[in-house]
């Protein structure tokens, strides 16, 4: 194989390296196999809420024509008075249509559980599906916010009864939430260039990359979870958060790429730090994979006053392309308290920034500032996630609230368990049950595998002679398999992240066997000696 210098890729994001790996994997002449397990886009769909959404669209168009049907091709806006009864009658006429029973049950549940006026709720859904208005309020539609908050309490907070309520900002996926949050923290001088933050590693790469950008200029401390601790933060690592110079702690829980949720003892230690030496510490927790761990509880539940939560519907409902996410913040929180307590001189810049929004701009809550900042304040009146997206999000949330037996949840988990078991079996690993493992990703630590399966000498030779990126490039070129390099997530250097969400079950046996084949190549090269081994100094044979 032609030598390739890999050092040029060392500073690149694994998500950008992936594009080169895909090119290599698909350019192989005569090759039939191409398996992209690099990104976590699930290959399943939640069908019931989608059926309901598209059926709701048909009802909405009937309402539009009822409001105005002349001249041909023009309709009016759905009218709120009596719309719930008309919807019920329409659904009865279309009872055999996919989604009809779900939609009737969802409306009934929402009205009964949340005390909604039926006309107001059904009209919000119909008007949202029509997409005929900007979202109002811009932060989130009112019925949608109530329903999604209940969903988050159930799947992210373990059904905990918490004081106060969470306010939500609907965003174009959790990725937009990350960007909006950082922008507002900077605009409101909560985090400014030169400030110190902590990142819980291994970590979803964009958190690492965004904080490096010049406009944020943040100094980073890594709180590192290690494989030998089953990717749990040790007390010694968490003690770094006691440093008063660190203003915020960012983490993904369950982890990406580790797929492991924090143990109760780790949550308790973090809470003790927040209640003890660091009551001022901001925690940002990304809980996208919460639904895949039974009984999951987020720091949003354990320490709600200090915590901002990020969530996306993409993974659980198979709706990455819909771009559905929320930022959650309890009404009583340290950020709004911090803004309110600023002396007049420190608040003047923010007063000027938000003066067009309110006669008392300094009383604006952070989430409302975030919505405005997402449109550079001046376009706040057109901010917010599109209403059709919010309607879809509402139906997804209702589907989980309606699923009292957890059938959908268990079906998703079973898919992931089958696939992760297949990979472990192919690698000859006897996986120990771990109720905190969500099975969405697997982090394959090649160094550890070599030590335990082929011996310390082979592992040491690979560490001396093989570039850490060699594994993923060799998988792409020789086997047509795309994985992401673990080093880009601050995971062990000779590791790779595999997604169990986006390929057929049988693919994971292929991936495991390909990794073993490459490991055996390394072992043969190690036995042959340095002169015949893999290239060093950033190259590979």
TrEMBL record:
Any single Pfam family the record assigns to this protein: Aminotran_1_2
GO molecular function, one term: aspartate 4-decarboxylase activity
Enzyme class at the top of the EC tree: lyase
Keyword Aminoacyl-tRNA synthetase (UniProt): no
Keyword Phosphoprotein: no
CDD domains in the record: AAT_like
A biological process from GO: aspartate metabolic process
Keywords: Pyridoxal phosphate
Protein name, UniProt field: Aspartate 4-decarboxylase
């Amino acid at each position: 194989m032609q030598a390739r210098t890999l050092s040029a890729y060392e500073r690149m994001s694994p998500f950008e390296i992936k594009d080169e790996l895909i090119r290599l994997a698909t350019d192989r002449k005569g090759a039939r196999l191409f398996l992209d397990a690099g990104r976590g886009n699930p290959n399943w769909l939640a069908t019931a809420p989608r059926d309901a959404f598209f059926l709701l669209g048909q009802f909405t168009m009937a309402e539009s024509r009822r409001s105005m049907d002349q001249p041909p091709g023009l309709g009016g806006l759905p009218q709120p008075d009596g719309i719930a009864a008309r919807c019920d009658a329409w659904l009865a006429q279309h009872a055999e249509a996919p989604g009809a029973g779900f939609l009737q049950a969802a409306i009934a549940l929402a009205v009964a559980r949340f005390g909604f006026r039926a006309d107001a709720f059904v009209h919000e859904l119909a008007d949202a599906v029509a997409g005929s208005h900007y979202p109002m309020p811009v932060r989130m539609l009112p019925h949608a916010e109530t329903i999604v908050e209940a969903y988050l309490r159930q799947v992210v907070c373990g059904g905990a009864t918490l004081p106060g309520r969470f306010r939500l900002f609907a965003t174009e996926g959790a990725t937009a939430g990350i960007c909006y949050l950082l922008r507002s923290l900077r605009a409101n001088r909560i985090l400014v260039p030169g400030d110190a933050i902590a990142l819980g590693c291994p970590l979803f790469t964009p958190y690492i990359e965004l904080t490096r950008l010049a406009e944020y200029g943040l100094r980073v401390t890594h709180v590192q979870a290690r494989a030998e601790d089953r990717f749990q933060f040790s007390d010694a690592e968490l003690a770094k958060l006691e440093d008063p110079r660190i203003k915020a702690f960012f983490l993904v829980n369950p982890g990406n790429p580790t797929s492991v949720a924090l143990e109760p003892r780790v949550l308790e230690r973090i809470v003790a730090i927040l209640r003890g030496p660091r009551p001022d510490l901001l925690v940002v927790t990304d809980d996208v994979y919460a639904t895949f761990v039974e009984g999951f509880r987020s720091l949003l539940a354990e320490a709600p006053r200090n915590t901002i939560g990020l969530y996306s519907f993409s993974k659980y409902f198979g709706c990455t392309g819909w771009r559905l996410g929320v930022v959650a913040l309890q009404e009583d929180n340290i950020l709004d308290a911090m803004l309110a307590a600023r002396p007049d001189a420190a608040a003047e810049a923010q007063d000027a920034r938000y003066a067009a929004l309110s006669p008392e701009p300094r009383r604006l809550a952070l989430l409302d500032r975030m919505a405005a900042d997402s449109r550079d304040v001046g376009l706040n009146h057109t901010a917010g996630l599109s209403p059709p997206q919010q309607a879809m999000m509402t139906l997804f949330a209702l589907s989980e609230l309606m699923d009292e037996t957890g059938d959908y949840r268990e079906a998703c988990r079973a898919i992931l368990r089958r696939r992760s078991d297949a990979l472990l079996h192919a690698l000859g690993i006897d996986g120990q049950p771990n109720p905190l493992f969500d099975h969405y990703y697997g982090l394959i630590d090649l160094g550890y595998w070599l030590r335990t399966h082929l011996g310390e000498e082979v592992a040491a030779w690979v560490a001396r002679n093989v570039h850490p990126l060699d594994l993923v490039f060799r998988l792409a070129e020789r086997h047509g398999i795309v994985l992401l390099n673990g080093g880009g997530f601050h995971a062990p250097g000779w590791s790779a992240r595999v997604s169990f969400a986006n390929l057929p079950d049988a693919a994971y046996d292929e991936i495991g066997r390909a990794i073993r084949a490459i490991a055996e190549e390394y072992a043969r090269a190690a036995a042959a000696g340095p002169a015949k081994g893999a290239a060093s100094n950033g190259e590979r044979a």
